[in-house]
Amino acid sequence: MKGPDMKSPTKFFVLLASLFLACVAAVSAPAQPADYSVYPHLAGKLDLAGENMGLAGFPLWGDDYFAVCNETSGLMILQVSGDTLGLVGSIDVIGQEKDIQVADWYGFVSTSGGLAAVSLAVPATPSSLGFVNLAGDGDRQLALSATHAYVACGSAGLAVIDISNPSGMYV
Fold first, then answer.
1. In the 8-state DSSP scheme, what is residue 170?
2. Rounded CA separation 165/130 (Å)
3. Residue 142's CB: how many other CB atoms inside 10 A?
4. CA dihedral (137, 69, 10, 43) positive or negative
């Protein structure tokens, strides 16, 4: 999985998703430690319909994007630009969305029915790549390794899914 270059951070964002609202706090690395003007401040907010269950940030072409799972509106791609937060794209997946993790250009979404793989290569038009049905219930917490997804399936235990080929995932 790729992430931002943390050797020389100048600015990064924290996305807070809660019931019906997403907020972004901007955090900068100050030139002088005593410069309090660049410490966390509200950079923007966006009202969202439905309960936001999960979120993940991912860098694309130097911009700041976030993927938010929403039980009502599906998977939504948000972008931070300056002090604004906007909806860039969205896609519905099978079942109610519970959690999301991002690896490279892929979003993996655990839902009430299983695990969905979504291409995030074009943020304005995310596309479905594959889906694996999973038994069980619960919040469907999700974790990723390089080639596997781990989904908590409540009474059915832990599901381990091979995600090395997102279009052909299997348990």
1. B
2. 9
3. 23
4. negative
CA dihedral 136, 140, 145, 146 (to 10 degrees): 80
Listed residue (49, 50, 58, 99) closest to 77, CA to CA: 58
Q: What is the pTM of this model?
A: 0.75
Query: What CA–CA distance (Å, rounded) separates 102 from 116?
Result: 12
Start-end of H helices in the chain: none
Closest CA to 98 of 130, 118, 71, 129: 71
Q: Would you say 78 and 85 are in contact if contact means Cβ atoms under 8 Å apart?
A: yes
> For residues 162 and 160, what is the distance between their CA atoms, to the nearest angstrom?
7
Query: What is the SS3 assignment for 2?
Result: coil
Q: Do 142 and 54 touch, CB atoms closer than 8 A?
A: yes
Q: What backbone torsions phi and psi does residue 23 show, to the nearest 5 degrees?
A: -125, 150
Q: What is the 3-class SS of 34-63, one letter each residue?
A: CCHHHCCEEEEEEECCCCEEEEEEEEECCE
pLDDT tens profile 85-143: 788 899 988 888 888 898 888 999 998 889 999 999 898 999 999 999 999 887 788 99
One-letter amino acid at 141 equals Q
Q: Write the DSSP symbol of residue 33.
A: T
Q: Which residue bears the tokens 């609202």?
A: 21
